[in-house]
């Protein structure tokens, strides 16, 4: 881990460093023009957020049913990253909406359900910090409910008529837009992987430090 | 002892305790009425109720009163140090959960029995025009809300800051149920009741109930084991 880490960071810097050039080179969308380029960061961060919520949910289930402390450390890290990525989604979304729809926020199914999911993971972090003893298992249950919301958020655009575009947009992208999109997708997933690895490593050190303190007291 | 007889024993115990003091029912009802009073100031303009406000008032009142009841139901177990005894009983955790859930559901139904006619009366909402769909929406909404609420209230019973944390956890998770209830009820209340929309929301609520009850039953046992 420690040896491959600088390499991974360099890869992320390269991916994100080259992304603006690719995005600038991509063709303009016919109706929205320049503002559509937010898409290249908005959608990949949303997909990374969904992935992170799933990671958190699955790790929490493993922690709840098999009592593996390692799984709990992955769950905490993934929950924090879900909130971070959710923040990116919820900042880039309204910036785009202001230009495309004329409003910052619209209470449609996709926007509302994304906000709800983000709040659930905020509640998870709040519980971790202020819940007191036993909050690790409680928050694991919260994470399961949060992860259960992901499919609902994803398909909400296809179930209801919403202002937000449906999930058909990505597969039907023209090739000159598909290239930069996939590049950004890889960049966000790589960033997610690096951040998760760092965060889990930090949790593991904390846990090791705790056991050392306990051993010292005995 | 079978699963359901254990669950029924737990409900019977809870309802018996409640029928002796009637603390939770009275507090929740009074709270629900004060809640409606507060909404009346925000959502009534020049003597006219804002469109769809009655549906929102009804469901938010039920949700708020439900939170109050949930907190008290488990506070009682904690104050009398009976939560541990209950968990130590030679019964499956899931059956204890089902018993507690049925008790909370019964409390919600009692609150609804008073709040629904009151909202109909005070906000001029025609809630009884399609009684069966309305009952379906209320039942499905209460089941989902009570299922998640019971799980989190039980787990928070031992936590220090449970009073503040329960609403923070409960509202984002149960918001799909509240949305389904509000939209379904609003579809019934318009000048022309939109039965198809109300049925669609009822189906939505039932599917959420299935997810919530399954997840709660599944997590209650490991989450309540030390």
- Structural class by secondary-structure content of chain A: mainly alpha
Rg of chain A, alpha carbons: 19 Å
> Uncertain regions of chain B: pLDDT < 50 for 5+ in a row?
none
Mean pLDDT reading of chain B: 89
Percentage of helical residues of chain A?
Answer: over 70%
**Could you give the order of the helices and strands of chain B?**
HHEEHHHHHH
Number of strands of chain B: 2
Indicate how many domains the architecture of chain B comprises: 1
Percent strand of chain B: under 5%
Range of strand content of chain A: under 5%
Count all strands of chain A and give the number: 0
Q: Mean of residue pLDDT of chain A?
A: 90
Q: Specify the structural class of chain B.
A: mainly alpha
Helix count from the secondary structure assignment of chain B: 8
Taking the sheet with the most strands of chain B, its summary is: 2 strands, antiparallel
Helix-strand pattern of chain A: HHHHHH
Distance between the termini of chain A: 32 Å
Global morphology of chain B: globular
The radius of gyration computed from the alpha-carbon positions of chain B, rounded to a whole number of angstroms, is 18 Å
Structure report:
The complex is a heterodimer of chains A (about 220) and B (about 230). Chain A has helices at about 5-25, 40-65, 70-100, 110-130, 135-160, 175-215. Chain A is mainly α and about 220 residues long. The longest helix of chain A has about 45 residues, at about 175-215. Chain A is globular. The model of chain A has no long low-confidence stretch (mean pLDDT about 90). Chain B is built from eight helices and two strands. Chain B has one domain. Chain B has a two-stranded antiparallel ribbon. Chain B starts with a helix and ends with a helix. In chain B, a hairpin with a 2-residue loop joins β1 (about 45) and β2 (about 50). At the A-B interface, α4 and α5 of A face α6, α7 and α8 of B.
Brief write-up:
With 218 residues, chain A is an all-alpha fold.
